[in-house]
Design a protein that fits this description.
heterodimer, A: mainly alpha, 10 helices, B: alpha/beta, DhaM_N (chain B)
Chain lengths: ~200, ~140
């Protein structure tokens, strides 16, 4: 069971990863997006961090619901509703004391919610191209962090079909998708903390 | 608007741009060309006031432009659309089905949608008229 301290550590790890990598995410987004992904995620997770005591006091599903709502309200780009939807869908699917199998199942359901929100599919150079392999790794027993990193790298040669990057057409090829990178960073931050807690 | 007209007699129009200036300027254009017959609200910028969109601001704009006949939202880029759809889902049930995002260019769409709305057209007709502006 992940206790208050564990939940607090998880939230701080996620927020810390987004805040620490804000410049890198913004640089990736300047190459193929509207150049605000890092700043947007930083703003959202700073708002999450501002309420870390209250959030960590809640059971995991309730904390995820509150985090999702904060991201929707504070991020200010398309990534707000997309990451917000991811967190809200996970909140709906996860029990208070989730197993690895619960995580895999909930993430698969949340991926469907993100697809609907973004009207996107796997293979279009988005965060989904990281989340889907992570769900598969969770299911098969493979390392989700390695899967996330490889999957983010694999977005480099892809051509963007959704979002601002899709306006660039072939010029979007050769750059890592910023949403794929932020997803990989979040997966790594969560997995690292879960290993420490467990 | 005449004193006898109910404020909800016509479909409301909401303009959502990444830029506060584009949102304000588009709304000004609608007011000059269409007049005051249509409930109109606009918002632009992220929660810090920079370029972007804010779900909270969109929720506020929907409230200001609310009409019993519904609200048509005109957006510029992807994030404005995604955030508007999120704001619609967060509405009370009795409202959610009467708010639509139009797939139309923001400036022309807002003027055409408002013109159609000012004549008392239904939400569906307002939307379809605006969407005729989009290349198929």
């Amino acid at each position: 069971m992940i206790d208050y301290k564990g939940r607090r550590a998880l939230i701080e790890a996620m927020a810390g990863a987004m805040i620490a990598h804000a410049d890198e995410l913004t640089a990736l987004d300047q190459a193929i997006g509207d150049g605000d992904h890092g700043l947007n995620m930083k703003r959202g997770f700073e708002a999450v961090l501002a309420d870390v005591d209250g959030l960590a006091a809640k059971p995991i599903p309730d904390a995820l619901k509150a985090i999702g709502t904060t991201l929707v309200m504070k991020v200010g780009g398309a990534s707000g509703p997309l990451y917000g939807t991811l967190a809200l869908a996970l909140a709906k699917e996860l029990p208070a004391d989730p197993s690895r199998a619960d995580l895999a199942r909930a993430l698969k359901a949340a991926i469907e919610a993100v697809k609907a929100r973004g009207k996107s599919e796997i293979g279009q150079k988005t965060m989904l191209d990281v989340l889907a392999p992570v769900a598969a790794a969770l299911e098969s027993g493979a390392d989700p962090v390695a899967a996330a990193e490889a999957a983010a790298e694999a977005t480099v040669p892809m051509k963007a079909i959704r979002g601002r990057a899709s306006f660039l057409g072939d010029r979007s090829i050769g750059h890592m998708d910023p949403g794929a990178r932020s997803s990989a960073l979040l997966v790594a931050a969560i997995a690292e903390k879960l290993d420490e807690i467990a | 608007m005449s004193a006898s007209a109910s404020p909800s007699a016509n479909v409301g129009i909401v303009i959502v741009s990444h830029s506060p200036d584009v949102a304000r300027g588009t709304a000004e254009m609608v007011r000059q060309m269409v007049g005051d017959e249509v409930p109109l609200a606009f918002c632009g910028g992220n929660p810090d006031g920079g370029l972007g969109t804010s779900v909270e601001a969109i929720l506020g704009a929907i409230d200001r432009a609310w009409s019993e006949k519904g609200v048509a939202i005109l957006v510029d880029l992807g994030g404005a659309e995604t955030n508007s759809e999120m704001a619609i889902e967060m509405q009370p049930e009795e409202r959610a089905g009467r708010i639509v995002v139009c797939n139309a260019p923001i400036v022309e769409g807002a003027v055409i949608a408002a013109t159609e709305a000012s004549g008392g057209a239904s939400l569906d007709i307002v939307r379809r008229t605006a969407e005729e502006l989009s290349p198929a």
